[in-house]
From TrEMBL:
SUPFAM superfamilies: DNase I-like. The record marks H258 as: Interaction with DNA substrate. Belongs to the DNA repair enzymes AP/ExoA family. The record marks D228 as: Important for catalytic activity. Residues 249-301 are annotated as: Disordered. One of its GO terms (biological process) is DNA repair. Gene3D superfamilies: Endonuclease/exonuclease/phosphatase. Residues 4-258 form the Endonuclease/exonuclease/phosphatase domain. This is Exodeoxyribonuclease III. The keyword Cytoplasm does not apply. InterPro entries: AP_endonuc_1, AP_endonuclease_F1_BS, Endo/exonu/phosph_ase_sf, Endo/exonuclease/phosphatase, ExoIII-like.
Length: 301
């Protein structure tokens, strides 16, 4: 079973990229984030094309913001929007945002997640992000049977780089979200449930990114971050035959600023082909001088 997660940064804009990519990579399960469509609009623009490719659809949207989807060729059972006690914003009892959907796909509880950005450390958005992650952890910990953490894959734009190795230059990110200790601690709390960061487990010493800012030639210089993750319970993680970033999908005309993360369970149709496909041809070398981050919207707003 091939599982992929991709923040498409507006699925309507990305249709000319998404459909050929589905035909090329043939994932069995696809987790999408930042669809930026209502449920009806998602089905209107993609329902027929996805059905022709054999995909069932679960979409949770809210119009021009957020939005997550699960596409599956291997079953889409017990679909759930959000998770138990998911907090709202700006107040905990406010309506919840469209940031999580899960279902049983091929016998595994798979989540498509779009974790709140956090914007700036110690802001209301930042505390909402930490509370959202804490409630998600509690929900996963409370699961049993098919919903047990051991049978779970958390897939999506986590808006956290797990370690300094997951950003091109740790110094450049000082004072920014995505790298603070509380965020990393909140992400690491899933490890205590037995979940594994399957890409990093497979490629512990490699430079692996999944997001590159559109500006300042960051992609071509390979100045990125790894914030799109797949975390899997130990029995699922043990089935991983390949885990990689499909960098090809970030190239060319009108791409998303994120690349898909791919995990093959049991068999690897393309072989165990490496951490990043294709690898960067001319990444910027560490020179000792810190590269200033572009003045743009934070990743995964």
């Amino acid at each position: 079973m091939r599982v992929a997660t991709w923040n498409v940064n507006s699925v309507k804009q990305r249709i000319p990229r998404l459909l050929p990519w589905l035909d090329q990579r043939a994932p069995d399960v696809v987790c999408l984030q930042e669809t930026k469509l209502s449920d009806d609009a998602f089905h209107d623009v993609l329902g027929t094309d996805l059905a022709e490719r054999g995909y069932q659809i679960a979409h949770v949207g809210q119009g021009q913001w957020n939005g997550v989807a699960l596409l599956s060729k291997v079953g889409l059972d017990d679909v759930r929007s959000g998770f138990e006690n998911v907090p709202g914003y700006p107040e905990p009892d406010s309506p919840t945002e469209a940031r999580a959907v899960s279902a049983l796909c091929g016998g595994v509880r798979i989540y498509s997640l779009y974790v709140p950005n956090g914007r700036t450390p110690d802001s209301d958005h930042y505390h909402y992000k930490l509370e959202w992650l804490s409630r998600l952890r509690d929900a996963v910990a409370a699961g049993d049977g098919d919903d047990a953490a051991a049978n779970t894959m958390l897939c999506g734009d986590m808006n956290i780089a797990p370690a300094d190795a997951d950003v091109f230059d740790p110094v450049a990110y000082v004072g920014h979200t995505h790298v603070t200790d509380p965020e990393r601690d909140a992400l690491a709390a899933f490890t205590s449930l037995g979940l594994h960061d399957v890409v990093r487990d497979r490629w512990p010493g490699d430079r692996v990114f999944s997001y590159w800012d559109y500006r300042a030639g960051m992609f071509h210089k390979d100045l990125g971050m790894r914030i799109d993750l797949i975390l899997a319970g130990a029995p699922v993680a043990q089935r991983v035959a390949a885990a990689w970033i499909d960098r090809q999908a970030r190239k060319g005309s009108k791409p998303s600023d994120h690349a898909p993360v791919m995990v093959d369970l049991d068999t690897a149709p393309d072989g165990d082909i490496g951490p990043v496909v294709p690898p960067p041809s001319n990444p910027a070398k560490r020179s000792g001088a810190t590269v200033k981050l572009p003045q743009s919207v934070e990743p995964g707003e």
